[in-house]
What does this fold into?
Amino acid sequence: MEADREFDKEKLLGKSFVFDALDDQARHELAAFAYVKRFRSGDVIFSMGDPGQSMMAIAEGSVRVSMLTPSAREITLNDLQAGDVFGEIALLDGGERSASVKALTNCALIVLERRSLLDVLSRNPDLSIHLIELLCQRVRRSDERMIEIAFLDLPARLARLVIRLTEAAPGSPEKPLKKLSQSQSELAGMIGNTRENVNRCLRRWQKAELVTLRDGWLIIDNRDALQDLAEGD
It folds into this structure.
């Protein structure tokens, strides 16, 4: 129980679109049911295809979200940090996990079980309608990502990814990150391309003084120029 008092569970879970659909009373109630679970670096939090009965907010540490292609190649979808939330879809439908998540560092996660959410929604039908609306918004954003892969050229897709991975959370007073630690293979996997093509693009950007590649880091030197590329200018 001591570990539970270390974190503001309601604030951390509040980063989820699920909590955006709830009123203050429902948020308080759900946060009271949430609990802390800890993982060591390298631990598998869950695997693609596992039953999904919870969502998790990262209180400490970082995790990697990935999936296997039909050819058994692992693709990194995202690296998540403290304050991020994952597993929301399984929380809603109780279906299989759509991706795998592994701890990159020692982690403390705030876990909310599906049965707790369903109990609250069953007593608040209006909240269910709002949740459906928010879920549709996420589907629309996913469609936009698919359009990016299908129609945008590599520089625009890569620039959008770099901007997205480094931007501060909405409403956060923090400034955007200036560098990324993801490998070129990981970046390529996130935009559906090859490491070789990503490397060539980054080398061109480095020559144009948009970025610097140093000691495994991708350092952003000209964010405005990358933003222009991301917008297709």
Q: What stands out?
A: The CA atoms of residues 21 and 133 lie 9 Å apart.
